[in-house]
């Protein structure tokens, strides 16, 4: 399914490493959370696997794989129905490896990074940006929303967000750059504790899917580019399991919230 999108460069020595083994090794590391040097001997050498991962995250291969699979999942579950809504939210996670873009989210009591994602009505990833945890959600939203411009999302009319995105500067940016409206979903007045907000649960469910990968339980990457690549890889793994279920069952299933 993904083999045609793996780049093959003309000339030079014939490739001896199986690309399926490389992809399996990267997904193994993502799901188990092990370090690169502790990849089992059944996989290609660590330096080889890391080399391909580094190449794919820079040359757009991971983006192409992700977008191709996302389109296939969308056509399988909602054939002929274009996207009309999307949702944006963020998640603050601790960082274990230092590196660039590290900050503190005092509200969540987290020292690390913040993941900003935009998903469609099925929870499939449309955009991802990783910043320091002290970056305000509304300030980081344009970097995520501008990724929608290069995708076939002309039918999207509403992007749902919570009250953290109630920001006049963000409204101005959307008015100048977006073809959609930003719809703020607020908590009911007088409510206390956790409340399931309508529509907004789709993006929260996507964060729950990402938590299946132990590599993402804590931000373990030195660079934000690697952190974003790991999130896309987690969605690639999820979508491959949906398109090719193991033993007739989905590893992750769409679940309706009552």
Outline:
This protein has helices at residues 19-32, 46-59, 61-77, 137-145, 168-177, 201-210, 224-243, and strands spanning 85-94, 103-105, 110-120, 125-132, 158-161, 181-184.
Keywords:
7 helices; 36% helix; alpha/beta; 6-stranded mixed sheet; 258 residues
Which structural class matches the secondary elements? Answer: alpha/beta
Which percent band covers the strand fraction? 15-25%
What is the arithmetic mean of pLDDT? 90
Largest sheet: 6 strands, mixed
**End-to-end span in angstroms?**
34 Å
SS element count, helices: 7
Radius of gyration over alpha carbons?
A: 19 Å
Order of helices and strands: HHHEEEEHEHEHH
Low-pLDDT residue spans: 250-258
Overall geometry: globular
Helix content: 25-40%
Number of strands: 6
Question: Could you give the topology of this structure?
Answer:
Layout: H1 19-32, H2 46-59, H3 61-77, E1 85-94, E2 103-105, E3 110-120, E4 125-132, H4 137-145, E5 158-161, H5 168-177, E6 181-184, H6 201-210, H7 224-243
Parallel strand pairs: 1-5, 5-6
Antiparallel strand pairs: 1-3, 2-3, 3-4
Helix pairs in contact: 1-2, 3-7, 4-5
């Amino acid at each position: 399914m993904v083999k045609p999108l793996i780049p093959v460069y003309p000339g030079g020595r014939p490739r001896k490493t199986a690309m399926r083994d490389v992809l399996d090794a990267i997904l193994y590391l993502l799901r188990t959370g092990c370090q690169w040097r502790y990849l089992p001997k059944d996989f290609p050498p660590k330096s080889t696997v890391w080399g391909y991962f580094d190449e794919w995250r820079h040359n757009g291969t991971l983006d192409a794989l992700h977008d191709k699979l996302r389109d296939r999942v969308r056509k399988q579950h909602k054939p002929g129905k274009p996207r009309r809504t999307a949702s944006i939210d963020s998640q603050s996670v601790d960082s274990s490896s230092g590196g660039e873009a590290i900050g503190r989210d005092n509200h969540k009591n987290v020292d690390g990074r913040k993941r900003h994602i935009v998903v469609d009505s099925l929870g499939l990833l449309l955009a991802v940006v990783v910043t320091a945890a002290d970056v305000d959600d509304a300030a980081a939203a344009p970097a995520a929303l501008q990724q929608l411009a290069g995708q076939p999302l002309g039918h999207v009319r509403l992007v749902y967000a919570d009250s953290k995105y109630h920001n006049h500067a963000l409204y101005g940016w959307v008015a100048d750059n977006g073809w959609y409206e930003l719809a703020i979903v607020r908590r009911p007045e007088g409510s206390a504790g956790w409340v399931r907000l309508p529509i907004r649960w789709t993006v929260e469910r996507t964060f729950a899917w990402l938590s299946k990968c132990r590599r993402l339980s804590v931000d373990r990457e030195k660079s934000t580019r690697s952190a974003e690549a790991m999130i896309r890889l987690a969605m690639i793994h999820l979508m491959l399991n949906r398109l090719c279920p193991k033993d007739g069952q989905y590893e992750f299933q769409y679940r309706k919230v009552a």
